[in-house]
Amino acid sequence: MKDLTTIKISNVHNKYVMPTYSPTIVLEKGVGLKVWDKDGKEYLDFTSGIAVTNLGHSHPNITKSILKQSDKIIHSSNLFFNELQPFLAETLVECSELDNGKCFFCNSGAEANEGMIKLARMWGHNQNRYEIITMKKSFHGRTLATLTATGQDKVKKGFDPLPKGFFHAEYNNIKSVEELINSRTVAIMMESIQGEGGIIPADQDFFHQVRLLCDREGILLLCDEVQSGIGRTGKWFGFQHYGIKPDIISTAKGLGNGFPIGAFIANSALSNIFQPGAHGTTFGGTPLACSVSLAVIKTIKDDCLLQNAEEKGSLLMSKLNSVVSSHKEWIDDVRGLGLMIGLVLKTPVKDLQRKLQEKGLLCIATAGNILRLVPPIIITNEEIDRAINYIQEACDELDESMLECLKDSK
Ligand SMILES: *Cc1c(COP(=O)(O)O)cnc(C)c1O
């Protein structure tokens, strides 16, 4: 039974907040992977606020950097240098391995992608190139340009007329990309691992072919690393598993561990296209946001968290595989990279997600039938074992109803 406070909060929420989401619990407090709701129930957080709080909740380094910097200066605008932004840019360029690259800072993933698209278009302007090929099932954000770039119809409904110049190819099918190339194409834009689309990693060969295609045609490769970046997959960016380099990278989600910040990083050929007046932002790259981001990156380095994400990702994946082996009739697959993992069901995922939440494990339902597991990259073996126990129990308990559901759908 919910207590009065939770009921009151949800009533006021429903009265005054637009119903774009349908939350059920009020999260009040978090430490590491643990979060507590208003009724005092404890959960293990495998959502990380949608792949954002990669260092977990209330990380002391993050709290300290917010307290210290907010006591000094929070915001000054980009009319002035600030003493942190250049060093965050330097750090991100190093992490991205884009030689002599430069950064532009903004506040969210959609904004980073919007800026990345604008930069590509301005680069192609003199050659009259402006078309961008993106992938089906991709997700790039909710602004008009980024929802148009997104390869899913559900985000576009009701918003036309949409900006022109976006075309969608089959992910992991190089022929389908080639078919869309023409003299107006300026770029190919893709996620190294599709997140919202259902945790689908790019095939090695496909990603290489896309890079070769871009080189051959003299066009740009834009990589949306908003979800897969900042250590989530065991590398700074997902594309680094593939041994290729994009021309522009966007990042956001994990970059501020919950403090809003995004960025795009362009290689040396593109780094001076945007001149004064071409692009801008009031809030992007504030001293406060940059101090938090620098703390995030330093913590990942100091605590060897890339390695932890990789190791714990394989451990979690192998334990999930053994759970799946006893429910093969209705669980199809486990896939992902590092700590970006999807459990692919043959049935809708809602019941499993709800059951896990009852037990005390928070996960994200994606693409209708996929359970998305994106725990903080500080995760320990004990926390993996606890989550696996919940998942094992939930799967056992749901076995009959899932098989029933499978029969009905046939
Ligand atoms: C979440 C996400 C975005 C959008 O980021 P917002 O911060 O919600 O605007 C863009 N691309 C990918 C791959 C994402 O996962």
Topology:
Elements: H1 4-16, E1 27-31, E2 34-37, E3 42-45, H2 48-51, H3 60-70, H4 85-96, E4 102-106, H5 109-124, E5 131-135, H6 144-149, E6 166-169, H7 174-178, E7 185-191, E8 193-194, E9 200-201, H8 204-217, E10 220-224, E11 248-251, E12 262-266, H9 287-302, H10 305-325, E13 331-337, E14 340-345, H11 350-359, E15 361-362, E16 364-366, E17 370-373, H12 381-409
The structure holds pyridoxal-5'-phosphate (PLP).
Compact summary:
The protein contains twelve helices and 17 strands.
Distance between the amino and carboxyl termini: 37 Å
Overall mean pLDDT score?
A: 97
Give the class from helix and strand content and strand pairing: alpha/beta
Major beta sheet, strand line-up: 4-12-11-10-7-5-6
| Count of DSSP-assigned helices | 12
- Low-pLDDT runs of 5+ residues are none
The ordered string of helix (H) and strand (E) elements is HEEEHHHEHEHEHEEEHEEEHHEEHEEEH
How many DSSP E strands?
A: 17
Largest sheet: 7 strands, mixed
Shape: globular
Q: Write out the distinct hetero groups bound to the structure.
A: pyridoxal-5'-phosphate
Describe the structure.
The protein has 410 residues and is an alpha/beta fold. The protein contains 12 helices and 17 strands. The chain has a 7-stranded mixed beta sheet with strand order 4-12-11-10-7-5-6, with helices on both faces. Pyridoxal-5'-phosphate (PLP) binds next to α5.
